[in-house]
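Show me a record, fold above all:
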Amino acid sequence: MGKGASNWIRSGLASFPALHLADPTFRRLIALRLFAEPAVLANQYNNNNNNSSIDAIPVNSHSNTNTNATSTSFFQCSLCSETVPCRSLHGLLCSRNQDARTRRHSHLKLILIEFLSKVFGHEKVHSEVELRIPNSNSMIKADVVVDTGVSSLIFDVTIPCCAASQYMNAGSIRDPKVTLQMAEHEKVVKYTPFLEARNISVDAFFPIVMETSGRIGDRVMALSQYIGKLDRPTIRVDTYHSAFNFFLARARTTLARSNGNMLRFSDQCRIALSSREQ
Protein backbone atom coordinates (compact mmCIF):
# COMPACT_ATOMS: atom_id res chain seq x y z
CA MET A 1 0.00 0.00 0.00
CA GLY A 2 1.09 3.56 -0.64
CA LYS A 3 1.51 6.25 1.97
CA GLY A 4 -1.82 7.48 3.28
CA ALA A 5 -3.79 4.50 1.97
CA SER A 6 -5.51 4.11 5.35
CA ASN A 7 -6.51 7.76 5.70
CA TRP A 8 -10.11 6.93 4.80
CA ILE A 9 -10.46 5.20 8.18
CA ARG A 10 -10.00 8.58 9.89
CA SER A 11 -12.04 10.55 7.37
CA GLY A 12 -15.03 10.90 9.68
CA LEU A 13 -17.48 9.19 7.32
CA ALA A 14 -18.18 6.46 9.86
CA SER A 15 -19.66 9.08 12.18
CA PHE A 16 -22.75 9.40 9.99
CA PRO A 17 -25.65 7.48 11.59
CA ALA A 18 -26.76 6.25 8.16
CA LEU A 19 -23.49 4.30 7.89
CA HIS A 20 -23.79 2.59 11.27
CA LEU A 21 -24.87 -1.01 11.79
CA ALA A 22 -25.75 -2.43 15.18
CA ASP A 23 -23.52 -5.32 16.22
CA PRO A 24 -26.20 -8.06 15.77
CA THR A 25 -27.09 -6.65 12.33
CA PHE A 26 -23.44 -6.51 11.30
CA ARG A 27 -22.85 -10.09 12.42
CA ARG A 28 -25.82 -11.34 10.43
CA LEU A 29 -24.72 -9.40 7.34
CA ILE A 30 -21.15 -10.71 7.46
CA ALA A 31 -22.30 -14.29 8.10
CA LEU A 32 -24.68 -13.99 5.15
CA ARG A 33 -21.94 -12.69 2.84
CA LEU A 34 -19.59 -15.48 3.95
CA PHE A 35 -22.16 -18.03 2.76
CA ALA A 36 -22.99 -19.27 6.26
CA GLU A 37 -25.71 -21.88 6.20
CA PRO A 38 -29.18 -20.54 7.07
CA ALA A 39 -29.30 -22.67 10.21
CA VAL A 40 -26.05 -21.07 11.41
CA LEU A 41 -27.48 -17.60 10.81
CA ALA A 42 -30.61 -18.41 12.76
CA ASN A 43 -28.68 -19.88 15.68
CA GLN A 44 -26.21 -17.02 15.70
CA TYR A 45 -29.00 -14.48 15.95
CA ASN A 46 -30.75 -16.45 18.67
CA ASN A 47 -27.56 -16.59 20.74
CA ASN A 48 -26.44 -12.98 20.24
CA ASN A 49 -29.67 -11.00 20.36
CA ASN A 50 -30.41 -10.47 24.03
CA ASN A 51 -33.09 -7.84 23.50
CA SER A 52 -35.92 -9.85 21.97
CA SER A 53 -38.27 -6.86 22.15
CA ILE A 54 -36.58 -5.24 19.15
CA ASP A 55 -37.07 -8.29 16.96
CA ALA A 56 -40.34 -10.16 16.98
CA ILE A 57 -42.97 -11.56 19.29
CA PRO A 58 -42.86 -15.35 19.80
CA VAL A 59 -46.14 -16.88 18.66
CA ASN A 60 -45.59 -20.57 19.21
CA SER A 61 -42.89 -23.16 18.79
CA HIS A 62 -42.91 -26.85 18.11
CA SER A 63 -41.38 -29.05 20.76
CA ASN A 64 -37.66 -29.41 20.24
CA THR A 65 -34.94 -30.31 22.70
CA ASN A 66 -32.54 -27.89 21.02
CA THR A 67 -33.42 -24.38 22.19
CA ASN A 68 -31.29 -22.88 19.42
CA ALA A 69 -33.31 -24.52 16.65
CA THR A 70 -35.04 -21.33 15.62
CA SER A 71 -36.10 -22.93 12.36
CA THR A 72 -38.84 -24.72 14.31
CA SER A 73 -40.20 -21.54 15.92
CA PHE A 74 -42.63 -18.97 14.56
CA PHE A 75 -42.58 -15.27 15.34
CA GLN A 76 -44.87 -12.35 14.63
CA CYS A 77 -43.05 -9.42 13.08
CA SER A 78 -43.82 -6.25 15.03
CA LEU A 79 -43.64 -4.20 11.79
CA CYS A 80 -45.75 -6.14 9.29
CA SER A 81 -47.59 -8.44 11.77
CA GLU A 82 -46.76 -11.44 9.59
CA THR A 83 -46.07 -14.76 11.31
CA VAL A 84 -42.65 -15.87 10.11
CA PRO A 85 -40.53 -18.98 10.70
CA CYS A 86 -37.08 -17.33 10.70
CA ARG A 87 -36.70 -14.05 12.56
CA SER A 88 -32.97 -13.61 11.82
CA LEU A 89 -33.49 -12.89 8.10
CA HIS A 90 -37.07 -11.63 8.06
CA GLY A 91 -35.84 -8.08 7.46
CA LEU A 92 -34.96 -9.21 3.92
CA LEU A 93 -38.56 -10.35 3.38
CA CYS A 94 -40.59 -7.89 5.44
CA SER A 95 -43.25 -6.07 3.44
CA ARG A 96 -41.94 -2.79 4.84
CA ASN A 97 -38.83 -3.33 2.71
CA GLN A 98 -40.63 -3.97 -0.60
CA ASP A 99 -39.38 -0.72 -2.16
CA ALA A 100 -35.81 -1.64 -1.25
CA ARG A 101 -36.21 -5.07 -2.87
CA THR A 102 -37.57 -3.48 -6.04
CA ARG A 103 -34.57 -1.13 -6.22
CA ARG A 104 -32.24 -4.08 -5.62
CA HIS A 105 -33.79 -6.04 -8.49
CA SER A 106 -33.55 -3.03 -10.82
CA HIS A 107 -29.92 -2.44 -9.90
CA LEU A 108 -29.00 -6.09 -10.43
CA LYS A 109 -30.77 -6.03 -13.80
CA LEU A 110 -28.74 -2.99 -14.87
CA ILE A 111 -25.53 -4.76 -13.87
CA LEU A 112 -26.58 -7.73 -16.01
CA ILE A 113 -27.38 -5.43 -18.95
CA GLU A 114 -23.97 -3.78 -18.74
CA PHE A 115 -22.28 -7.18 -18.78
CA LEU A 116 -24.32 -8.47 -21.74
CA SER A 117 -23.81 -5.20 -23.61
CA LYS A 118 -20.05 -5.62 -23.29
CA VAL A 119 -20.32 -9.13 -24.74
CA PHE A 120 -22.89 -8.61 -27.51
CA GLY A 121 -23.06 -4.85 -28.04
CA HIS A 122 -25.58 -2.34 -26.70
CA GLU A 123 -27.81 -2.48 -29.77
CA LYS A 124 -28.53 -6.20 -29.25
CA VAL A 125 -29.55 -6.02 -25.60
CA HIS A 126 -33.16 -5.12 -24.83
CA SER A 127 -34.78 -4.55 -21.43
CA GLU A 128 -38.35 -5.23 -20.25
CA VAL A 129 -39.43 -7.17 -23.35
CA GLU A 130 -43.02 -8.41 -23.59
CA LEU A 131 -43.16 -12.02 -24.79
CA ARG A 132 -46.56 -13.07 -26.09
CA ILE A 133 -47.48 -16.74 -26.23
CA PRO A 134 -48.97 -17.64 -29.66
CA ASN A 135 -52.67 -18.52 -29.69
CA SER A 136 -53.01 -17.27 -26.16
CA ASN A 137 -53.78 -14.07 -24.31
CA SER A 138 -50.93 -14.76 -21.91
CA MET A 139 -47.86 -12.57 -21.86
CA ILE A 140 -44.57 -12.69 -20.01
CA LYS A 141 -42.29 -9.71 -19.45
CA ALA A 142 -38.66 -10.76 -19.62
CA ASP A 143 -36.11 -8.66 -17.78
CA VAL A 144 -33.60 -8.84 -20.64
CA VAL A 145 -33.58 -10.30 -24.17
CA VAL A 146 -30.44 -10.52 -26.28
CA ASP A 147 -30.56 -10.87 -30.08
CA THR A 148 -27.42 -12.78 -30.98
CA GLY A 149 -28.14 -12.58 -34.70
CA VAL A 150 -28.82 -16.30 -34.82
CA SER A 151 -31.23 -16.70 -31.93
CA SER A 152 -32.49 -14.92 -28.84
CA LEU A 153 -31.35 -15.35 -25.26
CA ILE A 154 -33.89 -14.64 -22.55
CA PHE A 155 -33.00 -13.57 -19.02
CA ASP A 156 -35.11 -13.26 -15.88
CA VAL A 157 -33.53 -11.95 -12.67
CA THR A 158 -34.70 -13.20 -9.29
CA ILE A 159 -33.25 -12.84 -5.80
CA PRO A 160 -34.78 -15.46 -3.48
CA CYS A 161 -34.17 -15.60 0.26
CA CYS A 162 -33.68 -18.90 2.06
CA ALA A 163 -35.88 -17.62 4.92
CA ALA A 164 -38.98 -17.46 2.72
CA SER A 165 -41.62 -19.92 3.89
CA GLN A 166 -41.84 -21.91 0.65
CA TYR A 167 -38.08 -22.57 0.70
CA MET A 168 -37.87 -23.29 4.42
CA ASN A 169 -40.70 -25.81 4.11
CA ALA A 170 -38.55 -27.62 1.53
CA GLY A 171 -35.50 -27.69 3.79
CA SER A 172 -33.57 -24.56 2.83
CA ILE A 173 -32.64 -23.93 6.47
CA ARG A 174 -30.33 -26.96 6.28
CA ASP A 175 -29.45 -27.09 2.57
CA PRO A 176 -28.72 -23.72 0.89
CA LYS A 177 -28.98 -25.29 -2.58
CA VAL A 178 -32.70 -25.89 -2.09
CA THR A 179 -33.48 -22.19 -2.51
CA LEU A 180 -31.52 -21.88 -5.75
CA GLN A 181 -32.94 -25.07 -7.26
CA MET A 182 -36.54 -24.19 -6.43
CA ALA A 183 -36.22 -20.60 -7.68
CA GLU A 184 -34.71 -21.79 -10.97
CA HIS A 185 -37.44 -24.38 -11.39
CA GLU A 186 -40.16 -21.78 -10.75
CA LYS A 187 -38.77 -19.57 -13.51
CA VAL A 188 -38.43 -22.46 -15.98
CA VAL A 189 -42.04 -23.46 -15.35
CA LYS A 190 -43.13 -19.86 -15.91
CA TYR A 191 -41.36 -19.55 -19.28
CA THR A 192 -41.88 -23.09 -20.63
CA PRO A 193 -45.22 -22.33 -22.40
CA PHE A 194 -43.57 -19.48 -24.35
CA LEU A 195 -40.42 -21.45 -25.15
CA GLU A 196 -42.39 -24.45 -26.40
CA ALA A 197 -44.82 -22.33 -28.44
CA ARG A 198 -41.90 -20.51 -30.10
CA ASN A 199 -39.86 -23.69 -30.49
CA ILE A 200 -37.03 -22.16 -28.49
CA SER A 201 -34.64 -24.44 -26.66
CA VAL A 202 -34.73 -24.18 -22.89
CA ASP A 203 -30.95 -23.75 -23.11
CA ALA A 204 -31.61 -20.24 -24.46
CA PHE A 205 -33.40 -19.26 -21.25
CA PHE A 206 -31.30 -18.14 -18.32
CA PRO A 207 -32.95 -17.56 -14.94
CA ILE A 208 -30.41 -15.35 -13.20
CA VAL A 209 -30.95 -16.66 -9.69
CA MET A 210 -28.80 -15.09 -7.00
CA GLU A 211 -29.72 -15.91 -3.42
CA THR A 212 -29.46 -13.09 -0.90
CA SER A 213 -26.15 -14.49 0.38
CA GLY A 214 -24.63 -14.17 -3.09
CA ARG A 215 -24.88 -17.86 -3.96
CA ILE A 216 -25.67 -18.31 -7.64
CA GLY A 217 -27.77 -20.85 -9.48
CA ASP A 218 -26.48 -23.43 -11.94
CA ARG A 219 -27.90 -21.52 -14.93
CA VAL A 220 -25.79 -18.48 -14.07
CA MET A 221 -22.66 -20.57 -14.41
CA ALA A 222 -24.11 -22.18 -17.53
CA LEU A 223 -24.34 -18.69 -19.02
CA SER A 224 -20.58 -18.33 -18.78
CA GLN A 225 -20.05 -21.64 -20.60
CA TYR A 226 -22.75 -20.93 -23.20
CA ILE A 227 -21.41 -17.54 -24.27
CA GLY A 228 -17.87 -18.85 -24.27
CA LYS A 229 -18.85 -21.33 -26.99
CA LEU A 230 -20.48 -18.79 -29.33
CA ASP A 231 -18.92 -18.49 -32.77
CA ARG A 232 -18.38 -14.76 -32.83
CA PRO A 233 -18.19 -13.15 -29.42
CA THR A 234 -17.54 -9.42 -29.63
CA ILE A 235 -14.71 -9.65 -27.11
CA ARG A 236 -11.86 -12.09 -26.59
CA VAL A 237 -12.49 -15.14 -24.42
CA ASP A 238 -10.09 -14.02 -21.69
CA THR A 239 -11.70 -10.58 -21.64
CA TYR A 240 -15.12 -12.21 -21.47
CA HIS A 241 -14.24 -14.27 -18.41
CA SER A 242 -12.91 -11.16 -16.69
CA ALA A 243 -16.16 -9.36 -17.51
CA PHE A 244 -18.19 -12.27 -16.14
CA ASN A 245 -16.23 -12.34 -12.88
CA PHE A 246 -16.63 -8.57 -12.58
CA PHE A 247 -20.39 -8.96 -13.12
CA LEU A 248 -20.60 -11.47 -10.27
CA ALA A 249 -18.51 -9.28 -7.97
CA ARG A 250 -20.68 -6.22 -8.65
CA ALA A 251 -23.88 -8.21 -8.19
CA ARG A 252 -22.71 -9.63 -4.86
CA THR A 253 -21.63 -6.19 -3.65
CA THR A 254 -25.07 -4.84 -4.55
CA LEU A 255 -26.73 -7.63 -2.59
CA ALA A 256 -24.53 -7.06 0.45
CA ARG A 257 -25.30 -3.33 0.51
CA SER A 258 -29.00 -3.94 0.04
CA ASN A 259 -29.04 -6.57 2.78
CA GLY A 260 -27.35 -4.18 5.16
CA ASN A 261 -29.81 -1.39 4.41
CA MET A 262 -32.86 -3.64 4.86
CA LEU A 263 -31.67 -5.32 8.04
CA ARG A 264 -30.65 -1.97 9.53
CA PHE A 265 -33.98 -0.37 8.63
CA SER A 266 -35.96 -3.23 10.17
CA ASP A 267 -33.91 -3.24 13.36
CA GLN A 268 -34.13 0.54 13.75
CA CYS A 269 -37.90 0.49 13.23
CA ARG A 270 -38.32 -2.24 15.82
CA ILE A 271 -36.18 -0.36 18.33
CA ALA A 272 -38.24 2.81 17.77
CA LEU A 273 -41.48 0.85 18.10
CA SER A 274 -40.29 -0.80 21.29
CA SER A 275 -39.30 2.59 22.75
CA ARG A 276 -42.74 4.06 22.07
CA GLU A 277 -44.46 1.11 23.73
CA GLN A 278 -42.38 1.38 26.91
